[in-house]
Design brief:
Layout: H1 22-41, H2 48-68, H3 72-95
Helix pairs in contact: 1-2, 1-3, 2-3
């Protein structure tokens, strides 16, 4: 018996189950962007506010993305982004913290 060929769902680089996951893919992109931002700005002492806040938000978005992720292809870039965000966060905290020089 012949199978009916219908429209195929769009192919996603991050989904191996054949379905699209727009929320998870958005969280992956946001986590990676914030991780890179936190990591790069952590190399400059005077940008500690940006690196610490971007790192903190990147860690939180990555953690939520891990919580709701469906496939391994979504989890891998989340871990990379969270690692970069954590390094940026910790270096930003060492250089002055979340409120260093602004409050108090």
């Amino acid at each position: 018996m012949a199978q009916a060929i219908g429209p195929r769902p769009p192919v996603s680089l991050l989904a191996t189950d054949g379905k699209t996951h727009p929320l998870q893919q958005t969280l992956v992109a946001v986590t990676l962007i914030l991780g890179v931002l936190a990591f790069v700005t952590a190399m400059f002492h005077n940008l500690h506010l940006i690196s610490s806040w971007a790192g903190l938000i990147g860690i939180l978005t990555g953690a939520y993305g891990q919580y709701i992720s469906v496939t391994t292809r979504e989890r891998f870039p989340l871990i990379i982004g969270m690692g970069a965000a954590a390094i940026g966060f910790f270096l930003g905290m060492a250089h002055g913290g979340l409120f260093g020089g602004v409050v108090g």
